[in-house]
Design goal:
alpha+beta, 5-stranded mixed sheet, 3-stranded mixed sheet, 21 helices, 10 strands, globular
Amino acid sequence: MQHDGMNLAVYAEKLEKLAVSSGLDYYPIHFDIVPNNFMSEIAVYGLPVRMPHWSFGLRYIHQLIRQGMGHSRIFEVMFPGNPCHAYLARDNSIAENTLVIAHVIGHADFVKNNHLFSRFMHMAGNRILEPAAERAHNIELALQTHGQQRVEAVLDAALALEPHIDINQRLHREASDLTFKEAATDRTVMSNPFLNKFQQLPVAQPPSRDTDDALIPPCFPRRPEYDLLWFIAHFAPELAGWERDIFLAVRQESFYFYPVFACQIMNEGWASYWHARLLREADFLPDELYLSAVKAHSDVVRPFAGDDQLALAINPYHLGFSIWEDLIEKQGIVAARAICREEDDFGFIRNYLTEELAEKLGLFVYTANSEGSIRIIERDIFSLREALLASRFNYGAPRIAVNKVHVDGSLELTHDYQSDGSGLDLGRAERVLEYIARMWRRPVVLHTAGASGIPRVISSHPAEKPASSIRGDTD
């Protein structure tokens, strides 16, 4: 079926009128039809214009390989905001793009009314594309001024810490804690001539445990600080202004993406429910187009595996659509709208993925050995819910806090591994710690645990590779 832009515009206008008459309330949507390669780029970068970094190029190559193998097809990309911006692939059929328009309308309704999206979008001023383009421009200027090697080193470190924000804090925070500079010039500290010299050493070792307490400045920070990007941007002793700006830019984008991450199942399910309903009620669509759109809907909301095969990954469209359909059938659309406003994926899965529905969907928890054989280990509904949510806590990242800045400027981090329920991949943790030390420009220590839960202490100096020490038995 050839693309008919005029007909698609007519269908879009009628679908929006139908959506409003059905009670949907959403921000205006700007639709653009773009080439497939541009669609792939913005899907990988996460934004139409974003700060340049080599990791996005790797993701783009990976996406092209997946598309070439038939494992990944991008129908649309939608960016929340006021207005919302939606991109449709030029190679989609008119039926597929009609479905996509209805799907995007569902997304737009969700992001305007859901409490988490509303909060984060309000902090960002309901705008993301223009500030993202401005940040990208500033980094291009930094590249011209400071050179690719220096700028990429800062971006490497900032993007390695991309998930490490504190979502309970505001986007625009004041440095209300005692600042590093204030701590260093505290009256008690400045009265000691030895400590004055000690603090001037670039990578001095921490004082011994029996150091007189009078040498230690007031506790800094005053409480564990989980917003690592913010803390380093504000308190790293020697960061230049442009380096701090890069850390804050990455943090701002991480705040923008968090609701997308934390509401993925709800959001995709809600959009899928509404695209199915709007298409079903759109009596103005030709029969042939409607049937093609329904076929596309079936492809979107099915499990990844076909026929009687086991699906070993969750399709958020399929799971979210199934829960919303079940919920609306049992409780009605008014109750569903209240849930849409108040929940994120954590409450949605825990409260509305029922045992009956899980059995109907054939959900299970499995384990795989190194040879690739699969063993189902759990079908209990409580275990299923927690398994679905396990990778979604804290942006899927370990919960790491700044615990203390010592008098020599060294940084002490603590991993709350008991709350996480698991230890770290120590090799990866060491690489990230090296990035932090490079930006902090003082020694950094992380108290954590290995994969088996045995406590570990990892340390890194700015010009050295990190080293691990073990407390307890070996992993």
